[in-house]
Design brief:
With 202 residues, this protein is an alpha/beta fold. It has 7 helices and 9 strands. 35% of the residues lie in helices and 25% in strands. The chain binds 5-O-phosphono-beta-D-ribofuranosylamine.
Length: 202
């Protein structure tokens, strides 16, 4: 069975989309552990409710050693899924899991991403910039911030009446579709990485 670890920092709606996709048969894999870097993350409860092992760290205490602690705690998995995980992974975990860590970001990378661009700020920037379209991206994680090869993107129009909150909720609906889909492509070995480009063999 294909084994994944899901890393979260917040409410865990993307984690829920993965749990639901396993339960409804869309994904054939097992969540070995849910790891949070935030003791208050709502997603921890979503995992516990399903009997999934949870590992909770306090990033304020661990600082530089968080990535190594996570690497040690998850054991051996096939894929690490960053689902609203706000810490930046560094060091050994990036090397050991090269091309086996994916992240969901709530914009069309390379717009509105990079250091400090997370949560509602991303949508504030999108609206403030005047773009007519934004969206979300699933990408592989490398040693930069939001710089790894892009697997899937979905476009969401920015409407004249949008506030950061309304835009965030429409983008989130698309995130909940492309994160499980990207995992499915990886499980089914449909993905080829060619430099910065990802080819999906459907
Ligand atoms: C999502 O927008 C995700 O893309 C971003 O943080 C948000 C987390 O949402 N990185 P949730 O915790 O999955 O509900």
């Amino acid at each position: 069975m294909f084994k994944i670890a899901v890393l979260i920092s917040g409410g865990g709606s993307n984690l829920q989309s993965v749990i639901d996709s396993i339960e409804n048969g869309f994904l054939n894999c097992k969540i070995e552990a849910v790891v949070s870097d935030n003791i208050k993350a709502g997603g921890i409860e979503r995992a516990r409710l399903k009997g999934i092992k949870t590992i909770v760290f306090d990033k304020r205490e661990l600082k530089g050693s968080l990535s190594d602690k996570i690497l040690e705690a998850i054991g051996e998995v096939d894929l690490i899924v960053l689902a609203g995980f706000l810490s930046i992974l560094k060091g050994e975990i990036i090397k050991r899991y090269k091309d086996r860590i994916i992240n969901i970001h709530p914009s069309l990378i390379p717009s509105f991403c990079g250091n400090g661009m997370y949560g509602i700020k991303v949508h504030e920037k999108a609206i403030g910039s005047g773009v007519k379209f934004t969206g979300c991206t699933v990408h592989f994680v490398d040693d930069g911030t939001d710089t790894g090869p892009i697997i899937l993107q979905r476009v969401v129009p920015v409407m004249s009446f949008d506030t950061p909150k309304t835009l965030q909720s429409r983008v989130l609906e698309e995130e909940h579709k492309i994160l499980p889909l990207a995992i499915k492509h990886i499980i089914n070995n449909k993905i080829e990485i060619n430099g910065k480009r990802v080819i999906i063999h459907d």
